[in-house]
Amino acid sequence: MGSSQLSRWGLFCYGVLALFLLYLPLLAVGFASVSKARYLSFPIRAYDFKWYGESLASDSVRELLFVSLKVAGIVTVISMVVGFFGALAFARYHWRFRSLFQKVILLPIFFPQTVLGLALLIWFNALGVIPSWHTAVVAHLVWISPIATLVIAIRAYSFDPALEDAARDLGCTTFQILREVTIPLLWPGVVSAGLFAFLLSWGNFPLSLFTTGADSTLPEWLYAKMVSGYSPLIPAVGILTVVASAVTILLAWLGWSAYRWIPEKTGN
After folding, report:
1. What residues have CB less than 8 Å from 155, skipping those under 6 apart?
2. pLDDT over threshold 80, residue 106
């Protein structure tokens, strides 16, 4: 018993240490964002929160934020739809070319994003398409949709086919089975896939760099400023994007908790 408790404490300490090491760079960025000096130096001699005010008041930052949200929002919605039906083909139904489909759907994930972005840029140029945020949406979907498919497929593998068969025996149509049985059972996976899609698109730099053209997203702007004209405004914007991502996850968790609580409350 004592050995088991010691192992649990050891795993707990290991987890805390791993999280500390993972989030230590963010802590350094947070300190840099409140430095009064224009250039980063440690230890920080004077603190000032004016950079957060300047980032929130900047028209260019707001425009970049709008472009990033627009791309991430569209990618999220399309990835959830494509991932839902792709997961059914991947894990739920047995058909002739299922094995080939499972292999092909994984290929974009294993491509380096820089190579994939360059390939898409060459393809857009060959088609005569001018790169913009629209092409960035397509590029993000090429890489993110397979990930959404796999996330939903995890849920689909635990799907009991007998539930659909029972609904069909009771006289339900295919659309009714999809609406009343399949979608509710796979909905947790769809929501998880949507969160993954939003966060992966929101913070994506390599694909955006090659495919946005004259438009720019926040990751591209942060990189350009780090290379050419650093100021504490850069880490301040970075911290705000991290906070926005954390708030998105928190809201999704609260929404899902409320979604689960309503049926339980109704049942009681």
Report:
1. 87, 185, 186, 188, 189, 192
2. yes
Q: Which two tokens stand for residue 215?
A: 């438009």
31 CB-near residues (< 8 Å, 6+ apart): 42, 44
Name the residue type at position 195.
L
Return d(Cα 3, Cα 5) in angstroms, integer. 5
Domain limits, the chain: 37-267
The rounded Cα 102 to chain-centroid distance in angstroms is 22
Whether 91 and 151 have beta carbons less than 8 Å apart is answered as: no
Q: Report the DSSP beta bridge partners of residue 35.
A: 47
CB within 8 A of 1, min separation 6: which ones? none
More confident residue, 234 or 197: 197
176 in Cβ contact with 217 (< 8 Å)? no
Sign of CA dihedral 15, 16, 21, 22: positive
* Residue where the block lists tokens 């018993």: 1
What is the pLDDT of the chain when averaged over all its residues? 81
* 8 A C-beta contact, residue 114 and residue 180: no
Residue 129 has pLDDT above 60, yes or no: yes
Give the CATH fold of the 37-267 domain: MetI-like fold (1.10.3720)
Token duo for residue 117:
């972005």
Asked whether residue 177 carries a pLDDT value surpassing 60, the answer given is yes
Sign, Cα dihedral of 122, 123, 128, 134? negative
In 3D space, the residue among 31, 32, 26, 33 whose CA is nearest the CA of residue 56 turns out to be 33
